[in-house]
Each structure stands twice: as C-alpha cells, then as structure tokens.
C-alpha cells in the first residue's frame, strides 16, 4: 500500500491549510470503497465507518472516519485531470507489480447486455 499512497500523495490538495484529513488517505479509502461497490459519498463514508479498524492498519485516519460531506467536498474541489493521471499511474504500477505487460486496446462493455435489456 505504500506505493498507492505515494502515488495519491502527488495529487495537489485544493483544500485550505486547516483540512483535518490527509488527502491521500481520503483518496485511498474512497478507491477501496468504490472497488467494493460504493456508488456515492454516503456509501464511501459508511464503508469507512464499518471497516475503520481494518483501514487503520493501512492508513492512519488520525481524525477518525471522514463524513460523507468531507468526501463530497473533496471530490468537488479536486482537479479531475490530476486525479485521472494519479489513478492511471496507480493502474500502471499495479500491472507492473503483478507482472502484466502494457494494456492492449480497450475492453468494450455493452451496458444493455449487462442489464439484460435484450430480453425485454
């Protein structure tokens, strides 16, 4: 996890100097929650609350669990291109660690087939 946190630390924090929660930690727990199915800031906050002990083994969460308002505010303020670049660097580092080569092409996913829209 130090690799992920070091990549996420490269994202510029747009909040004021008095921000309580570390931005890299917020992004890490949001990424973990999203990978586990969270679809909103409320879902992310509930994920963190429900797994606080496990997450504290990886990140500090010095000021406890961030609220859904904190996640919402952070995501409104972040530069989307900067976050995209950090997440791309994370995926490339993950592929490298897993011994996978460079990605080839794009995987197209048909939303209608996933939702079984063809059956209606």
Outline the fold blueprint:
Elements (H helix, E strand, L loop, with lengths): L1 H7 L14 H13 L5 H10 L1 H4 L12 H10 L2 H18 L13 H4 L6
List keywords for this structure.
120 residues; mainly alpha
Question: Could you give a quick summary of the protein structure above?
Answer:
With 120 residues, the protein is an all-alpha fold. Helix content is 55%, strand content 0%.
Structural summary, described in words:
The chain is an all-alpha fold. The protein has one domain (2-119). 55% of the residues lie in helices and 0% in strands. It contains seven helices and no strands. The model has no long low-confidence stretch (mean pLDDT 90).
* Helix percent band: 55-70%
Individual helix count: 7
Order of helices and strands: HHHHHHH
The total strand number stands at 0
Largest sheet: none
Output mean pLDDT.
Answer: 90
Briefly note the structural class of the backbone. Answer: mainly alpha
User: Distance between the terminal alpha carbons, to the nearest Å?
Assistant: 44 Å
**Total separate domains:** 1
Radius of gyration computed on alpha carbons: 16 Å
Low-confidence stretches: none
Bulk shape? globular
Beta-strand content: under 5%
């Amino acid at each position: 996890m130090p690799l992920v946190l070091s990549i996420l630390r490269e994202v510029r924090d747009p909040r004021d100097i008095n921000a309580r929660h570390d931005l890299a930690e917020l992004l890490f727990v949001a990424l973990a929650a999203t990978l586990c199915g969270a679809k909103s800031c409320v879902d992310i906050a509930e994920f963190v609350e429900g797994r606080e002990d496990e997450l504290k083994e990886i990140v500090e969460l010095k000021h406890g669990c961030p609220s859904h308002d904190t996640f919402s505010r952070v995501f409104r303020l972040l530069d989307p291109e900067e976050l995209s670049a950090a997440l791309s660097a994370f995926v490339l580092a993950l592929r490298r660690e897993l011994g996978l080569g460079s990605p080839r092409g794009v995987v197209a996913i048909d939303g209608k087939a996933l939702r079984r829209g063809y059956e209606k």
